[in-house]
Amino acid sequence: MTAKIELRGVCKRFGRKIVLNGIDLTIEQGESFVVIGGSGTGKSVLIKCILGLLTPDAGSIKIDGKEVINLPRRERQEVMRKFGMLFQGGALFDSLPVWENITFALLQNKEITRAKARDLAVQKLKSVGLGADVANLSPAELSGGMQKRVALARAIAADPEIIFFDEPTTGLDPIMADVINELIVKCSKDLGATTLSITHDMASVRKIASKVAMLYNGKLIWQGNADKIDHSSNDFVDQFVHGRAEGPIAAGV
């Protein structure tokens, strides 16, 4: 069976700094894969390489068995249709009402009329627990938790096959973070989507992950089922998972 996402030997550096150093990663259809690691360890660079926003210096990235590095623009656009993305800060457009934010890509690509776009937005708002009255509000009128839900509604607007979640609970209180985690699980299951999340929030990991990998010093130093994370037999993983100051990872690294 062909993997949904497959990386082999992926490397990326910026000047002298090696950010990704030979990444091997396989994500199967329908999996919820989470990459953990401290700030600045290259988690966002990993996602940007898969999306084609950055070009790796070496290695292979395949989506549904198709090599996607250095694809011609038209073929890249076809691949991009498979993706949905929940950005860390929500990244909503302040100048647009909620319904246009949710359907922005569909409208830009002229895949839907404005009337149908608003109806679709209301439908997606319902799926993330928000009412139709939210559709005409501006992002500035929303709480942080509501903004995150709207951003999730935008991520699933086109019923993507693959969804990326970039630090999905950052800036949220523990209760709202759990609400977002629950919605991620629900929406992904409803769509049958394959998901890749990056986070340092272990509560999120335990809620949404089926498999986990840890990125450290440019390498994936451990991979396994989510239920093995507390018994990984890896000192680096153990320190990170339990939030200990003492261990092989120096503070701030």
Written overview of the protein:
This protein is of the alpha/beta class. The chain contains nine helices and ten strands. It has helices spanning 43-51, 73-80, 98-102, 104-108, 114-127, 144-155, 174-191, 202-208, 235-242; strands at residues 5-14, 17-27, 32-36, 58-63, 66-67, 83-86, 162-166, 194-199, 211-216, 219-225. Strands 6-7-8-3-9-10 form a six-stranded mixed β-sheet, sandwiched between helices. A four-stranded antiparallel β-sheet has the order 2-1-4-5, covered by helices on one side. It starts with a strand and ends in an 11-residue tail after the last helix. Helix 7 packs parallel to helix 8 (202-208). The chain is 34% helix and 25% strand. The protein has a domain at 1-71 and 195-253: P-loop containing nucleotide triphosphate hydrolases (Rossmann fold), CATH 3.40.50.
Structural topology:
Blueprint: E1 5-14, E2 17-27, E3 32-36, H1 43-51, E4 58-63, E5 66-67, H2 73-80, E6 83-86, H3 98-102, H4 104-108, H5 114-127, H6 144-155, E7 162-166, H7 174-191, E8 194-199, H8 202-208, E9 211-216, E10 219-225, H9 235-242
Parallel strand pairs: 3-8, 3-9, 6-7, 7-8
Antiparallel strand pairs: 1-2, 1-4, 4-5, 9-10
Helix pairs in contact: 5-6, 6-7, 7-8
